[in-house]
Amino acid sequence: MSKVAQALSIAGSDSGGGAGIQADLKTFQERGVFGTTVITAITAQNTTGVFDIHQIPLETIQTQLKAIADDFNIKAFKIGMLGSAEVIKCVSKSIKEYNFGYFVLDPVMISKGGAALLQENAINALKNELIPLCDVITPNLPEVKALTNIDIKDKESAKQAALILQKMGAKVVIIKGGHTNNSTSEICEDIIFTQDDEFTLSSPRFATVQTHGTGCTFSACITAELAKGNSIKQSIFLAKEFISAAISNPLNIGSGHGPTNHWAYSLKKKDD
Predict the structure, then answer these.
(1) Is 216 a catalytic residue?
(2) What is the Cα–Cα distance from 197 to 62, expressed in whole angstroms?
(3) In this predicted model, what pLDDT tens digit does every residue of 221-252 receive, in sequence order?
């Protein structure tokens, strides 16, 4: 039996390589975790936008999940782009059947360029089918608004939204502050609500458009650390450091919202 930590990403493919399955695999690799995948959709995209989305047939998604369950020792998994209510229900049914360990949910709804990645009628399916199962949910501010109908203005409104998500079933809620309208703030704050605690993680707000795939990368890093046996708090702290390094050391690839630098954290640790 291999002692190598193994994780799973259930998400869409990004042909530009900055988000989705590609970002997750890069993150898993950087954190010393063997990554497996279930692809739910294929997108044609680059740093300037999403130009086409092809949904994978439900039967193929189910077969991918069974193939992973039959042959790998998955200790943690994350879910990103699912796209439709039908896919959400399909994936929900399978993950109830298989033991994939810790579940991190990144409720992907809108791309950096503004393209809808989740059909409107799928939001209720997300609330009913996946949030009740997840150990960690990592919504940004627009996703929080879509899920709870609360417009985050301060820590009190963030707490109200987190309580709603926890009542839906999420154990740990991470409300990411990167989309705040307070553009004058030099600090980006993520507020974390566990079942018995709350705390804030702060980082400098970097003036850059090189942020494609930040949500995918952050949630993938949490997943990788959980797969290695770290606690949820340890995993969140490291993921915050990882994504801060990835954003603050841009690759400057493409002419739009460029990808983050997945190897920046490893280089930083070597320099330290």
Answers:
(1) yes
(2) 37
(3) 999 999 999 999 999 999 999 999 999 999 99
